[in-house]
């Protein structure tokens, strides 16, 4: 727990101090509910657009396709409109405690308007995920075009997706993952109030976003290949990311998630071989 005596106050030692929370929990809760609602509505809109059946017993989501007359920039912008609420819904459960502690640390240090500085950190954090989305869309669109043009590639897609799930699960057991998870788990305590105001908060958020993307990129890959905008898969991945970061036994949780992912990936390979695959990418 943060102590006011560590940041220097002029009040008497025995007088209780009331410190601004910096980031209102209600604001975070409202942002989460709004992002979930927008994500659900976006998923419904994509479902209404339909999906294209592909060789190999899977379907291609129209989210990777350009509409008639639509340019690449417009298509990428439409993808980001869907991507960012989805990322907010998936990341806020684990990001919220970090922002709350950061805002409280700023308030205890006497920083004026700590909520604004924490908001700048949140902006930097989601700028990282926006950049990830910008990188993902052209890759996904190119793979979709290639699968439509080559039947053999389309037939290999279920096996490739299953392999991604297996590799993502295996990565949970590596020292590389452990180091990045340790950075994310220590982030709430490490986010001390830096000088520099809003720009410093933005830099702090960018750094936290990079840590986060490296730490959970493998789990996000599962969400992408196992069903873009599938609410059940999104919920499972969100739960895994939140649990491994916030629970006391986060390292063991990460290994358990990895074991489950490897098992699911193997099952998907078996189903792909038997022709029982039903997947929407």
- How many individual β-strands? 3
How many domains make up the 3D coordinates?
Answer: 1
Taken from the alpha-carbon principal axes, the silhouette is globular
Low-confidence stretches: 1-17
**How does the major sheet shape up?**
3 strands, mixed
The tally of helices reads 8
Order of helices and strands: HEEHHHHHHHE
On the 0 to 100 scale, the average pLDDT is 82
| Percent of sequence in beta strands | under 5%
Q: How many whole angstroms does the radius of gyration measure?
A: 21 Å
Write out the strand line-up for the largest beta sheet, numbering strands in chain order. Answer: 1-2-3
Distance between the termini: 45 Å
Helix content: over 70%
What structural class results from the helix and strand content? mainly alpha
Task: Summarize this entry quickly.
This protein has 281 residues and is mainly alpha-helical. The chain contains 8 helices and 3 strands. It has a 3-stranded mixed sheet with strand order 1-2-3.
Helix-strand blueprint:
Layout: H1 25-49, E1 51-54, E2 58-61, H2 72-108, H3 114-149, H4 151-171, H5 175-190, H6 197-226, H7 231-246, H8 250-274, E3 279-280
Parallel strand pairs: 2-3
Antiparallel strand pairs: 1-2
Helix pairs in contact: 1-2, 2-3, 2-7, 3-4, 3-6, 4-6, 4-8, 5-6, 6-7, 7-8
